[in-house]
Known about the structure:
By secondary structure, this protein is of the alpha/beta class. The protein is 30% helix and 24% strand.
Amino acid sequence: xxxxxxxxxxxxxxxxxxxxxDYSLTILHTNDFHARFEPISKxxxxxxxxxxxxxxxxxxxxxxxxxITEARARSNNAILVDGGDQFQGTLFYTYxxxxxxxxxxxxxxxxxxxxxxxxxxxxxxxxxxFMDAVDFxxxxxxxxxxxxxxxxxxxxxxxxxxxxxxxxxLIGLTPQDTDELxxxxxxxxxxDPSDAVQGEVDKxxxxxxxxxxxxxxxxxxxxxxxxANTTGVDVIVGGHSNTLLGDMDGAVGAYPTxxxxxxxVQAYAYGKFLGELNVTFDDDGVVxxxxxxxxxxxxxxxxxxxxxxxxxxxxAPLEEIRNKVVAExxxxxxxxxxxxxxxxxxxxxxxxxxxxxxxxxQGVEVAIANSGxxxxxxxxxxxxxGEVLTVLPFQNTLSTFQVSGATLVEALENGxxxxxxxxxxxxxxxxxxxxxxxxxEPGSRVSDVMIGGAPVDPEKMYGAVSNxxxxxxxxxxxxxxxxxxxxxxxxxxxxxxxxxxxxNAPYAPYTDGRITIKE
Length: 519
């Protein structure tokens, strides 16, 4: 707070006896960055330097650095926070794990972040290494980490920071099903988000903190539920659902979305936007005004030269792998999450077809890929290994196994059980066709299941292929954990897909009606 404001606040108090100045705060926020340190294309995939020079690219750390600096200059009283999932998504993460994210976030001056599910992709060890490297608190309220030695007494549920002479309470949230979405290990127990938030709000309130911000990697829907179910929260800075809010094309709600007096914001993903919410609190910590918008990181935002040089340096070891042309695509291959998590998509068909083709000679008849494993689209023309790795960054391996027809149907039911939420468990398939009735209750949505042109036989054992994450129960596919003759150590899924593309070049993306959706 400036001296002038402090003086006027003091004067107001003296004159009115009880009156005090409002407190204004700018909340700058990002979420679901997913290691997009370099600029991205309109498909959220890589964007070359030539295209960048022509103004066709978005995001990247160098643009974010400029935008954050400019936003701070506009405000004089700002915090910078992250809604989780800095980890995973490009070769930068594969090569550096959390080290480059920690370096860049420290450079940008983040004040706090919450744990996203992908922060657990490589277990508590890599998350702890990241936490040790950053200069700010990493938070998660809805989990008991006391049994995990790497995180106990280090990963806090909430924290208090001071800004402009006022205390701000910050609370972290992560998906309650992180044990299904990532690899936190057996020692971390996830709990209900609303209960966890209320518990921390009560503690902070007792400490005299009346401005409370939740950093939530729970998704737009859960954020609205938490807002409705709790008291004392002022702002929720979201993530996980990659939701764009505001007045622009593609936005799904208002920025901020207000539920139960709580201001809810989110800024899409991949560093394509910097969220900027300007909040005014009265003396009791009640929000009296909240305005702002996600700022698009397009060519109008100049890249910070020092940051760009550092990212170029960090990219050097990755260049040879990334630039190798593996195939050609005759058209864009659709991997957008809004499509692939709701229906058959051409990227899903490519990956499922590639998996099945690789192991068909082993008696495998069915392939199931989780759409959450598909992280980008690929544009038409030359396809590089870097693009394939951006789509399939998780270093998953092919898993083959045998299950009954009844178990396959159970798996499909799991896959379509959260279609309304855009959950990553939605199944992309090969060798099998089925119909989904979205209006039916979860667990009773799948019908007309055909394998090899014949109706599925519930008693028959079928050979199946997926990735090791799904086979071991990820994304809710717990029915595969006890599968027979399971082998989880096949080739890397990205390599399998790249080789399939090469064998079928020029690859023509397609959908063929293998999944029928009834509204």
